[in-house]
Specification:
Blueprint lengths: L2 H8 L7 E6 L10 H14 L6 E5 L2 E3 L47 E3 L1 E2 L2 E5 L2 E7 L3 E11 L28 E6 L3 E7 L14 H6 L10 E12 L1 E7 L3 E11 L7 H23 L1
Helix pairs in contact: 1-4
Length: 285
């Protein structure tokens, strides 16, 4: 019997592991540190059956009500009460556009943002989630939002930092970039003028209270993404210059290759060593 045959007998304990989990972030609370949020999310992963798995998160703030000082558009019409309500990740799930007749939730839930509503001086330009104990393989999806930013009050030369480039993008036009493994870009979305390509909502609470006929001009975006990733250990959600948010992050993992069982590996090594010793003894006799 040779070592190859022994591998077939002892070297593999056969099972591939697979699973999925959706982070709705509702177990997080505003004010939690990165370390505390990482611990909470790790507990959820392990509880979902991902034994030995963990997640580390940086650059994130748990929030519920952020709406860029009332400049985020949503349901409502000009000149009519009640005033428009901002459609955000906090009061919607799976929204693909901000419409004048969008449905908002009666209560707020938690999402991750790069700004803290209670203290907007606390901000970052990137949320990073690093996973260990497994790699993401399979379907991934999430809700995301680009919030209005004071650096770009309108998609004009004077309102957004200068002239547009050859692709029609202004210097301070807010965007959302999703990347994996720290440097591999997946997609980038830019904020758009309200009422154009991301829904029919034209008014925000701020524009309404300033003058009920004012149309909100600050570019913004709300939407969803889904796709398939492989061998991914890091997710990066990057903003410039505005605040972004992420919610309802669903990930999948699997181990398609058989995993060696430790006891089988030990037995294989012992038997293989015995074969080598036996061959040496046979040659000397």
């Amino acid at each position: 019997m040779n070592v190859t045959k022994l591998v077939l007998l002892f070297g593999v304990a056969a099972v591939a592991s697979a699973g999925s989990f959706t982070f709705n972030f509702n177990s997080l609370t505003p004010g939690q540190s990165d370390a505390s949020m990482s611990s909470t999310l790790t507990s959820l992963l392990v509880g979902a059956g991902c034994t030995g798995c963990s997640v580390s998160i940086t650059g994130a703030y748990a929030d519920t009500t952020y709406n860029a000082d009332g400049n985020t558009t949503g349901p409502g019409s000009s000149g009519l009460y009640p005033a428009p309500t901002s459609l955000t990740l906090g009061d919607s799930n799976g929204a693909t556009a901000s419409n004048s007749n969008s449905t908002v939730s009666g209560s707020y839930d938690t999402f991750l943002a790069t700004t803290n509503q209670s203290n907007t001086a606390n901000s970052d330009d990137q949320i990073t989630m690093t996973f260990s104990g497994f790699t993401i393989n399979g379907a991934v999806s999430f809700d995301y939002e680009i919030f209005p930013d004071i650096n770009c009050t309108a998609l004009t030369r004077s309102g957004c930092g200068g002239a547009a480039n050859g692709q029609g993008i202004y210097p301070d036009q807010p965007d959302f970039k999703f990347a994996t493994n720290n440097n591999s870009d997946v997609f980038t979305t830019y904020g758009v003028a309200p009422g154009t390509t991301n829904g029919s909502a034209l008014y925000s609470p701020n524009s309404f209270y300033a003058n009920s006929s004012y149309v909100e001009t600050a570019p913004q975006y709300i939407g969803t993404w889904s796709g398939t990733l492989s061998n991914t250990s890091t997710l990066d959600f990057v903003d410039w210059p505005a605040t972004i948010g992420v919610d309802n992050l669903s990930i999948s993992w699997n181990s398609p290759d058989p995993v060696p069982d430790p006891s089988s590996i030990f037995l294989l090594g012992t038997v293989a060593a015995g074969i080598v010793l036996r061959k040496k003894l046979w040659k000397t006799t």
